[in-house]
């Protein structure tokens, strides 16, 4: 199953509502159907996509909706401008729940890439995507990967 959802981008949005067209890649004869309407005033209306959905087909989520999600019990994280719904995954996160809680509704891009590789993202991250966004800043400045250079051989 895939999702085509250009309608939810701000430039295409009418009446502040958008439709998501459900498109089955496995069943190419099936007609696309409108499966749900995202309501920007209700963060719970955003649904997880499937793995083969392209990032550019994800619905756009306004930063204000991401902030509002925090107060509805949802645990959304932003990594590289993609929004992940970790509300259920938080209980299974091998790195513990506390670390994800601490980034609720915020940008944790560099923190994510410090502890994970593309394999984790593809296997565990992709199915948690609910949308894309822009403008959610990371609260912490990224420290350099290498702190200073030191001779690897010879006298100190
Ligand atoms: C979409 C969000 C995330 C997903 C899908 C995710 C997934 C995972 C997975 C699959 C592992 C196990 C890796 C392994 O055993 O090789 C892991 C471990 C871990 N994650 Fe995450 N994670 C997410 C976000 C974060 C964030 C934001 C942090 C904050 C820094 C974090 C910190 C950690 C830590 C500290 C570990 C343990 C690493 C270790 O034991 O070496 N994760 N995560």
Automatic annotation (TrEMBL):
InterPro entries with a match to the protein in the record: Cyt_B5-like_heme/steroid-bd, Cyt_B5-like_heme/steroid_sf, Cyt_B5_heme-BS
Cross-referenced PROSITE patterns: CYTOCHROME_B5_1 (PS00191), CYTOCHROME_B5_2 (PS50255)
Domain Cytochrome b5 heme-binding: from-to ranges: 76-134
Gene Ontology MF terms in the entry: heme binding; metal ion binding
UniProt entry keywords in alphabetical sequence: Heme, Iron, Metal-binding
Domain of life the protein comes from: Eukaryota
Protein family: Belongs to the cytochrome b5 family.
Protein name: Cytochrome b5 heme-binding domain-containing protein
Organism: Clonostachys solani
């Amino acid at each position: 199953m895939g999702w085509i959802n250009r309608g939810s981008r701000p430039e295409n949005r009418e009446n502040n509502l958008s439709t998501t067209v459900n498109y089955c890649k496995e069943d190419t004869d099936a007609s696309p159907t409108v499966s749900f309407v995202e309501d920007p005033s209700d963060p719970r209306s955003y649904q997880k996509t499937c793995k083969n959905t392209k990032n550019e087909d994800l619905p756009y989520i306004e930063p204000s909706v991401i902030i509002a999600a925090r107060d509805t019990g949802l645990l959304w994280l932003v990594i590289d401008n993609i929004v992940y719904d970790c509300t259920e995954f938080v209980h299974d996160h091998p790195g513990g729940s506390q670390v994800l809680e601490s980034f609720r509704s915020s940008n944790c891009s560099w923190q994510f890439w410090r502890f994970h590789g593309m394999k984790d993202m593809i296997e565990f991250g992709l199915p948690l995507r609910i949308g894309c966004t822009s403008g959610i800043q990371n609260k912490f400045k990224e420290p350099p990967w290498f702190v200073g250079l030191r001779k690897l051989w010879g006298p100190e």
